């Protein structure tokens, strides 16, 4: 016998029971005076205007979200968001080729290959100008097969620090849409490029605004300094709500056998900041301070090299954007700087401007100067 077998049926709550009885009554003249909740002249619940305003202020949702066209899953920071997106695409998308910029963050190739996609590259960086190879980019994406996926760094391209201008983004958008390519944004540095969350979100918003599909992998590791918490999200923007709801159900199936559920602590911190207008404002200020310090490091390093008369054009140090400078130093020069100056960086000559300070700029400038002379 059940240990609960002797438990008796509880009576209906005296107040809630009134509504139960009311709901059951088919009469057209029925009137519920049981529950103490405010109703309008039309008998409808009232959402106060001020509440609506506050909600708008806090959430400020994009139309695509209001229209329930975005399927979002909390994922394990940027990497996990990319991987879940890639697994989803490998399973449910008709095309299996994804184009990534050349060069790109080293993990992109591995994440997409492991998920079963085939990775190709599109021209991106031009070593001679240390800027964007825009013509090459347009040619390569223009030659991609219809439906192919395109990985785009939303801002602060890693490792080059080279981003398209908004005019160039618009051309990229038109090309991608006209060819029916599927854009997949990697947004790992929102706010870090310009210091403004909105400005850095512009490219993604341009694509969402045209009503077409896109994927967005977001990391909060850098912009909230929550590196170890692994806070991120994958959003799949769809054209209709019913599609988004089916996409979301499939995302759950992708995630379930990988790690079942994401951890809650860091995500609760991020959600609290995003939902509370005071904290949100405070975050924007602190984020801008981080971005501004990096920008000032660019200026200081550039000035220090100019002061030393270091041969070559170093203007790319101030032109490039975000956390990294792609110095143009070759692997021998990098090895020299490590051996003689104890300065460590990746062998492709990428330096993290975030690791630099006013105190250490002169040492780095001395090392670069010695490496190139
Ligand atoms: N994308 C890019 C371009 C990155 O540089 C990084 C971090 N180095 C990531 C994604 C993922 O970062 P995380 O998983 O730590 O959020």
UniProtKB/TrEMBL annotation:
A GO BP annotation: amino acid metabolic process
Gene this chain is encoded by: LOC111284590
UniProt family annotation: Belongs to the class-I pyridoxal-phosphate-dependent aminotransferase family.
The entry's keywords: Aminotransferase, Pyridoxal phosphate, Transferase
Cofactor(s) recorded in Swiss-Prot or TrEMBL: pyridoxal 5'-phosphate
InterPro entries tied to this protein: Aminotransferase_I/II_large, Asp_trans, NHTrfase_class1_PyrdxlP-BS, PyrdxlP-dep_Trfase, PyrdxlP-dep_Trfase_major, PyrdxlP-dep_Trfase_small
Pfam families: Aminotran_1_2
Residue ranges constituting the Aminotransferase class I/classII large domain according to the UniProt record: 59-368
Coiled coil: none
Keyword Transferase on entry: yes
GO molecular function: L-aspartate:2-oxoglutarate aminotransferase activity; pyridoxal phosphate binding
E.C. numbers: 2.6.1.1
Origin: domain of life: Eukaryota
Catalytic activity entry: L-aspartate + 2-oxoglutarate = oxaloacetate + L-glutamate
Organism: Durio zibethinus (Durian)
Protein name: Aspartate aminotransferase
SUBUNIT field: Homodimer.
Misc note: In eukaryotes there are cytoplasmic, mitochondrial and chloroplastic isozymes.
GO CC, alphabetical: mitochondrion
